[in-house]
Amino acid sequence: MSGLVVIGAQWGDEGKGKITDFLASGAELVIRYQGGNNAGHTVEVGDKSYKLHLIPSGIINEDCLCIIGDGVVIDPKAFIDETEYLEREGLRVTPSKLAISDRSHIIMPYHKVLDGISEEKRGSQSIGTTKKGIGPCYMDKHERSGIRVCDLLKPEVFKEKLKASLEIKNSIIKNIYGGEELDFNEIYNTYMEYAKILVPFVRDTTVEVYKGIKSGKKVLFEGAQGTLLDVDYGTYPYVTSSHPISGGVCVGAGVGPTAIKSAVGVCKAYTTRVGEGPFPTELLDEMGEHIREKGFEYGTTTGRSRRCGWLDLIILQYAVRISSLTSLAITKLDTLAGIDTLKVCVGYELNGTMIDYFPASLEDLAQCKPVYKEFKGWDSSVAKAKSYNELPKNAKIYLKFIEEFTGCKISIVSVGPNREETILVDESL
Prior knowledge:
Blueprint: E1 4-8, H1 16-24, E2 29-32, E3 41-45, E4 48-52, E5 65-68, E6 73-74, H2 76-88, E7 98-101, E8 105-106, H3 109-122, H4 134-143, H5 149-152, H6 155-176, H7 184-198, E9 202-203, H8 205-214, E10 219-222, H9 248-253, E11 262-268, E12 271-273, H10 286-294, E13 307-309, E14 311-312, H11 313-323, E15 327-331, E16 341-350, E17 353-355, H12 362-367, E18 369-376, H13 393-406, E19 410-414, E20 422-424
Parallel strand pairs: 1-10, 1-11, 2-5, 2-10, 5-7, 6-8, 7-9, 11-15, 14-16, 15-19
Antiparallel strand pairs: 3-4, 12-13, 16-17, 16-18, 19-20
Helix pairs in contact: 3-4, 3-6
């Protein structure tokens, strides 16, 4: 497993948390490399269900060190709340079990305010953010005016940087958006209390990762969101503010490209997305509602209902290429059980011409009509399968076509939400 990355191969919400948890049972380090608490991973083990947003899914493995890398933006309050939640659920969350990069950027109250106000001002052009301050925090990072974890641990440095930032942010909030200014003392005192809790977890995590890889430990890199939410390669501007693709691992975890030995792309047996933007295979009918209800397609972080559609292999083929995926993990195969005829998108019709690629222009994508190939469905026995051979014949035909079309083998098949309802096809993972 050494140097294995798990990414989302669609629009996020593919079940990365479950697959990461499944693979983390054999990992010694799990590193979250991008995003923030705008992500949501649900992991089910036995009769327990854990909802994670910021902390890596490997936290459930007692023998694994989890790392929040420098590519992640951290809301201290969200971090503290999540650690307390996990402790109540019986999981140990200590500095020996979890580390935070001292280079990670901190989400501040003004980031959340600006996120909410700017989204509201966009009106019909809204992006559909979670309003948790993720985008504005990344904006400050790249504008070189951000506040990092290492700054939070030095009161005088933090005070100076907060004053400078708050002066500018308050001016924007008040004079441009007509909002109320934020109070310096309230923010400073609150964040100093947060710092006391964060201090034991903070260190140079790039050293931990480097030593782990050099010593041959099993290292798992965990992404949030999905390929089509990547700020460069997704459906811009309806994207996140970081790089969920495998290329994001290097800068988000502080490693070189040779540290990545393999990459698993997680995708559902159908397609979903949350938020705005074109969605070629979206089903705005009873079938779409059936998939939504049977698959319980509601966001872990937002609770928003997900838009549902048939599996789009043009998207999946794109994800394989962009992230050099070495294998695929197919989730929620059980959700499609009982549907007589399934459809899979194998191309787009754009202005009367057949195309086999994913367009950059959203205007073009919105005009794309999916070209489908039909497959016979399977029954509920799929959920009882314990091995690939036990899957229904039609389900195996469906999976085989995915492999052939994308040129990427399937290494894992999930037939239910629980950890035990996972079929490992490739034993080498």
